C-alpha cells in the first residue's frame, strides 16, 4: 500500500558560526523553524530488494545521489530490512535555496519507512541515523522549531515562534553551502545573539524576535552574489519587520505580522526577483 509523507522546508531565524573543528566541520548554532512550503513523498513497497527514486525536478538526481535514496539505504542497513521501495518526490521546495529541501526529503523517507516496515524507531533514533546523510536531516526529522548545535546535528526543541507571515524571495541562482563555508573567517563575521532570539521566542515577542534574527554567512554570500544583498535591502525598504538570509542563501526571508503587508511586499518584489512566496510557519503547538 502506498504511504505519503510531507517534507516541509525550514528557514533559519539565526545562523551563527562559532569556529572550525579538527574534523573539518564548522561549529554552528542555528535556530530553525519549519514552514508550510513542502515536498510530498510517496513510498511504494517493492517486492524486490532495491531502492528506486524519482523527483519531478531537473536539478534533483534520480539515483543514489538523491538524499532520499541515501536515507532509504541507511534505514535498510540499520534495521536489516531486505525489502524494496520506490520513492516518488513531488518537489515544491526550491533546490539549493537554503531551505533544506533535500534534507527534509531524506527525513520524510526515514519517518515513512519507519511506518511502512513497522520498525517503531523513536524520533531520536531517526535523527541519529539522519546525521550521516546531512547536517540538517536531524532537524527535519522533527520539523518543528529548534536550536541546532554541533555541526547542526544536536537538536533542542523550542516553542513555536510568534505567529506571522513569511515572505521568501529567491533569485535564480543556486548557492553552494560548501563554497560559502570555505570562505568563513570567524573574526570577520557578524554574530547573531542566539540567546536573545530564544528569549524572544519563549516570550512570544515578535518585535524582539525580528530585531535579533541574523545570519553570520550573509556577508559572504552577499560578496559572492551582490543581487542577494539587493533583495535583502529591498525587503527591508518595503517594510518587513525582520529580514534574514536562510542557510547559506540565496533565499531571503521576511517576517511580517499581517497578510495585507505581506501581500504588498510580495507584489513589490515579484518584478525584482524570480521566485517569491508567502507562506506561514508550520503549526506545531
Ligand atoms: P544545503 O544547504 O544542504 O545545500 P539546500 O536547501 O540549500 O541545502 P537542497 O535543495 O537540499 O539545498 O539541495 C542541494 C543539493 O542536493 C542539490 O545539488 C541537489 O541536486 C542535491 N539533492 C540531492 N537530493 C535532493 C533532494 N531530494 N532534493 C533536493 N536536492 C537534492
Automatic annotation (TrEMBL):
SUPFAM superfamilies: GHMP Kinase, C-terminal domain (SSF55060), Ribosomal protein S5 domain 2-like (SSF54211). Its EC number is 2.7.1.148. Residues 197-273 form the GHMP kinase C-terminal domain. Pathway: Isoprenoid biosynthesis; isopentenyl diphosphate biosynthesis via DXP pathway; isopentenyl diphosphate from 1-deoxy-D-xylulose 5-phosphate: step 3/6. It comes from the Bacteria. One of its GO terms (molecular function) is ATP binding. InterPro entries: GHMP_kinase_C_dom (IPR013750), GHMP_kinase_C_sf (IPR036554), GHMP_kinase_N_dom (IPR006204), IspE (IPR004424), Ribosomal_Su5_D2-typ_SF (IPR020568), Ribsml_uS5_D2-typ_fold_subgr (IPR014721). The keyword ATP-binding applies. It catalyses: 4-CDP-2-C-methyl-D-erythritol + ATP = 4-CDP-2-C-methyl-D-erythritol 2-phosphate + ADP + H(+). Keywords: ATP-binding, Isoprene biosynthesis, Kinase, Nucleotide-binding, Transferase. ATP binds at residues 94-104. Catalyzes the phosphorylation of the position 2 hydroxy group of 4-diphosphocytidyl-2C-methyl-D-erythritol. NCBIfam families: ispE (TIGR00154), PRK14608.1 (NF011202). This is 4-diphosphocytidyl-2-C-methyl-D-erythritol kinase. The gene is ispE.
